[in-house]
Amino acid sequence: MAIGTVIAIAVLVPFLFYYLVGSEWERERDRQQQEERRRRSDELQRETRRAQRRESIERSRAAVDTSRSPATQNQHLRSLLPPSTNRIPRVELGSYLQNAREQQSQRRVGSRLWRDWQILIDGLKSPRNPATAVHAIHLDIPTLESCYNFYDNSVIRLLISKANSLGLGEIAVVYLQPLMYPRMSAKDANARLGDYSPLASESLTHFYVKMETLSDKIYKVRSFFGAVHAILYYCLPPNRNLQEYIEILTHLTNLLERALRPYLSERTQLFRAKISLLVILSPIDSRDSRAIIGFNAVGDKELKSIIIQERLAHLSELRDVQLSGLTWSAGNCAEDETFSHFHKLCSSPMGQSRELIAASLTLNILDGESNGPCKQCVQLMKILRDQLRTVTILSLAPVRGNRVEQLMVTAENGGQEMAN
Ligand SMILES: [Zn+2]
């Protein structure tokens, strides 16, 4: 009996142990295996979904690419990038330098005119001032050069920002902002749908701008070019050398041509726009200088006539100019706007008793060419020279048909002469 009981316990205890503990052990192992299978399955499903998503992205990209012609793809890219017109035109001072040398060679060595031409030659070759010397409001050459990297109308944008800094924001709203055609390139067809009124119409609001160098110290802005004249009056840096002023003039001419191309080329008869530079400098130190940039009277008949009348009021000598068989009257030319500042520029702050040199250069905005002053402007300069004998007035415009292009002075080589 006792042995039987011991045997029974000996069999039963391991059986119970196996049944109770071992089965629990197996169930736990099964659970872990199931868990592992589920984890693998989930992982597989996730990986499948990722692969499907990648595939669908690839498919949609391919669909977008095939739905676009190369032209529309390029257009898409163009809308993200500025037009690729980032080549900065070289400012060639060679023709002006050549003209100055020819003029000088016709003078007696040691005479005042010989000396004054030599001063202009030196001014055309002297290196630029360091950019750091430029006041924030002033236009500097690197800023103008950077305009070529952006949209065709970037110079208008630059002038608007200058106008805002000068407190001339209202003028920019009326005369500059409407010419900011929506497309980036002036070559785009719909740029021609722009608003011409700031260039042509006399019906826009006019503004008074203080200009110390005018006889009544007040300039009336009545057009786009009047607005640019007013902005440049404050933005052109003083005390630069002649090379810098001519570089600024040439860049402004190129950039205005780019910006106004849709307007100027559509209505060439109306807008034969010219830009003129007048630099007054001291023969003792040619960096003791001041510059003015002006424009011809551009616009409809009424606007032109008002602008010319106002110029006659500023520069009474224009009334003494005889009509010389030309189709325009005195007061129309770009020189007439710059020379309106002549008397005051030649007196204060440089001093009336001192000798001075006045250098003038006028360019066509459309082609950048210079034809020199017209017969009426030559008359005006003679009248002014007779009044102020201490000032020599010289035109930098090369003689037409007598240009020698071999000698070039470029902005890049810092004014060194270079054989072509
Ligand atoms: Zn003229």
Give the cofactors and ligands.
zinc ion
Beta strand count: 8
| Widest beta sheet: strand line-up | 4-3-5-6
Structural class: alpha+beta
Q: Helix count, per DSSP? A: 14
Provide the low-confidence segments as ranges.
60-81, 401-420
Q: Whole-number average pLDDT?
A: 79
Percent of residues in helices: 40-55%
Gyration radius, to the nearest Å?
Answer: 38 Å
Distance between the termini: 131 Å
Backbone shape? elongated
Helix/strand order, N-terminal first: HHHHHHHHEEHHEEHHHEHEEE
Strand content: 5-15%
Q: Quick one: biggest sheet?
A: 4 strands, mixed
Number of domains: 1
Explain what you see:
It is elongated and about 155 Å long. The chain has one domain (91-419). Helix 6 (154-166) runs antiparallel to helix 7. The chain is built from 14 helices and eight strands. With 420 residues, the protein is an alpha+beta fold. Helix content is 49%, strand content 10%. It has a four-stranded mixed β-sheet with strand order 4-3-5-6, sandwiched between helices. It has a two-stranded antiparallel ribbon with strand order 1-2. A two-stranded antiparallel ribbon has the order 7-8. It has helices at 2-67, 70-80, 94-105, 112-125, 141-146, 154-166, 169-175, 197-200, 224-235, 242-266, 301-314, 334-338, 342-346, 375-387; strands at 207-210, 218-221, 274-281, 289-295, 356-364, 391-395, 407-409, 417-419. The structure holds zinc ion. Residues 333, 335, 373-374, 376-377 line the site of zinc ion.
